[in-house]
Design brief:
The protein has 82 residues and is mainly α. It has one domain. Helices cover 41% and strands 5% of the residues. The chain has a two-stranded antiparallel ribbon with strand order 1-2. The longest helix is centred in the middle third of the chain and has 15 residues.
């Protein structure tokens, strides 16, 4: 099973459609959407995989407009320095 950390994500500010790797990405999706203990999908790995695919399609600009911008800034500040 492929893990989300092993995927070469193409997440950008603007979303994009998959062209060359559409089928490859589709194969990463969980077989069904389910809810377990109030959370979508079976585990965090499936959730991360779906999040990565949605971010590729929608882009980061769309994501950061959801919720409180200060929370996004705090999360970015908490990233390890390179």
């Amino acid at each position: 099973m492929m893990r989300s950390r092993d995927v070469d994500w193409g997440i950008r500010r603007r979303g994009r459609a998959w062209v060359k790797n559409a089928l490859e990405r589709w194969e990463l999706t969980p077989r069904k959407i389910e809810m377990v203990s109030g959370k979508l999908f079976y585990n965090d790995e499936q959730r991360l995989m779906m999040l990565g695919m949605l971010l590729e399609n929608l882009g980061v600009d769309a994501a950061v407009r959801m919720g409180d911008p200060n929370i996004w800034r705090e999360a970015i500040e908490a990233l390890p320095k390179r």
